[in-house]
Structure formats: C-alpha cells, structure tokens
Amino acid sequence: MQILRCVRPLVLLPAIVLSLLAAPALAQIPDLKLGRVPTLAPLVKEVTPAVVNISVEGKVRQDNPLYQDPLFREFFDVPKQVEKQISATGSGVIVDAQRGYVMTANHVVEHVSTAQIRTKDGRKFSARLVGRDPATDIAVLQIKDPTELKAIALGDSDALEVGDFVIAVGNPFGLGQTVTSGLVSALGRTGLGKQGYEDFIQTDAAINPGNSGGALINLRGELVGINTAIISPGGGNVGIGFAVPINMARRVMEQLVANGRVDRGRIGVTLLDLDSPADGRVQGARVADVTVGSPAERAGLRKGDIIVKANDMPVRSATQVRNLIGLTPVGQRVRLVFERDRALGNATVEVAPVTEERARARSSG
C-alpha cells in the first residue's frame, strides 16, 4: 500500500442531509436548538466497537547480502538466506462475537507467528490464524477466550450503488481507531494487479497505511467491504481507495473457517469481456472456449455463448463470472443464463477440482 499523506475535507451537501434523513435511527440528526445538524455520531458509536487493531509478530527469510560475495562464500560458512524478525500493524473487523472470528486483510497477517487484538475499549486478546487467502487478500483470525465482544452485521455489497455514502474505520499509521467518510466512487474495479480475484469497491473515504483489514460500512451500520489498498502515485491523497466486497469476503471466510483454506475449482471455460456490442448487449461474458469433457460442456455451454446472468445476478464482465466460479466451493453448482442465436438458455454447472479439469484437458489433447 502506498503512503497517503493527507485527507481531503468532507463537504456537507444537501444530498447528505437528505440521505441522513432517510437513513435509520443510527444516523439520526439531533436538534441542538441551532438548527438540524447532520451527524454520523450515533452510527459510529454503534459500529466502531466491532473494529479492532491488530499487531502481528513474525519471521521472514531474506537473501543474505554476504552470500553474494564469492570470497565470503569460499572462506566462510555463509547461509544463502537469513531469518528476520518483523512486526506489522493493521485493522480487523469482528464478524462473530461468540466464536471470536475477526476478518482482516491477508497482507496484514501474511507472516504472522503471533497476533494480538486490541479492541476500542483498550482490551487486549491473543489470536490465532484460522486461514488466509492471498488471491482475494482476505484472512480470518480467531480471538482466544472471547468475552464481551461486539460483532458487526454483514451487508449486501451487491446492493451497493455508485453514490452511496460509506464510512471507513481503521488504524491508520498506528494512531488508533479513526473514522473517515466518503462515497462509493465505482464498483467492480479490476486490473489493479494486486491479486488474482479482483472486484473492488472504489471509494474516496480516506484509507491510509494501517487501515488495511478495516471496515467499510454503509449508513445502515452494515459491513459492506474490507479495506485493502489505495492508489497514491505522488504519496499524497488522490481520493482513490479500494475495498474487497463483503459478499466475496464472506464466501472466502466460510471456506477458511471450514477448511483453513480456499479450494478453488473450474468449470472448463475461457471467458472474455464483450469488446463491442453483441446482439444488442453491452454487458456480459463471451465464452471463448469450452474444454472437451468439462462440466461446462456437459451442461450444454458452447463457444460463442454470451453469459448474461450468474446465480441470478446480471453479468457485467468476464471477471465477475471468473470470481464467482473461483469462490464457489468444489462440488457446488453455478446457475448460468446465456444467450445463443438471440435466444436465452439455462445451464447448471457443477464446479470441479482444478486437478480434475487439468487431467481432462490433457486427455483431450
């Protein structure tokens, strides 16, 4: 994550007032006898106890610079790599108070040996790593002996729209819990080169180093994203931050809790975005190839089909379908609606293990 040095001040527009008026009681507008003053204080008080600070200690192996010197290698027993102790801080969100599960960003706990959780009220807990998934930058910790914790409700990130108000809560620069606000600037951002499964929420709510793993929350007080990255070419705030949608993070968490890892499968298709309107459509995913003997072929998909819905959700891009398939547990089924020769068809495809798909591909030549 690049350093973000300053925060752009929030301008309170009439639209914000209207949004707060329409929001639940958590985002009420008190009457201070000086006029009605917009405030998110009730909402913040409700949700921030679920956002925690994470301190991590770990070890990494690095190339030994002395090993690069041939004289040292010849006359001294110089190891090729050396072990280095590291520490890191970040943020996390309590998503299950009874079992003590905390969702965070993978890169916060990538080298974890020990982890300590600090709650808003100053209590400290030891935690263990349940599992992590570098491909989505999501990880899950479990607090040991959880007592009197408060979790946050999970929202529906698929219901987000550009222009929705959100707040970001985290631990920027190790300062302690900090709240910022902004808008959903864009949805479905991909191509950032950060990890394998990209479908980011873009927001102008200030996200800084240390915010990673923290909460992106809507005005209903629901968790809609896990903050993960920013773009900051000059080291200053350009108002571009990214969060992993909670619907994606939830599916990852379920597998991590159940198995300690994410087992990804395939259905045997190559997908491409529509580079030009096809049959009057500007959104969808074109099937560029179907593997012989694959679940997709058995379900009736063919090269040239345009997938327009996946599990009843309209398809915006090929990345969206790849993400859905990659996050669906092996053995479960994906419902697809496709267009072929200007007619719609349906296919229910079972997700198969990657090894099985590769074996079929090899046997089919």
Description:
By secondary structure, the chain is of the alpha+beta class. The chain folds into 2 domains: 6-258, Thrombin, subunit H (Beta Barrel); 265-363, Pdz3 Domain (Roll). It has 7 helices and 20 strands. The strands form 4 sheets. It has a 6-stranded antiparallel barrel. The protein has a 6-stranded antiparallel β-barrel with strand order 7-8-9-12-11-10. Strands 14, 15, 16, 17, 18 and 19 form a 6-stranded antiparallel β-sheet that branches. InterPro entries: PDZ (IPR001478), PDZ_6 (IPR041489), PDZ_sf (IPR036034), Peptidase_S1_PA (IPR009003), Peptidase_S1C (IPR001940). Residues 1-27 form the signal peptide. Pfam families: PDZ_6, Trypsin_2.
- Rg from alpha-carbon coordinates: 23 Å
Main-sheet strand order equals: 1-2-3-6-5-4
How many DSSP E strands?
Answer: 20
* Tally of individual helices: 7
What's the helix-strand series? Answer: HHEHEEEEEEEEEEEHEEEHEEHEEEH
CATH architecture of the largest domain: Beta Barrel
Helix and strand content put the structural class at alpha+beta
- Can you tell me the CATH class of the largest domain? Mainly Beta
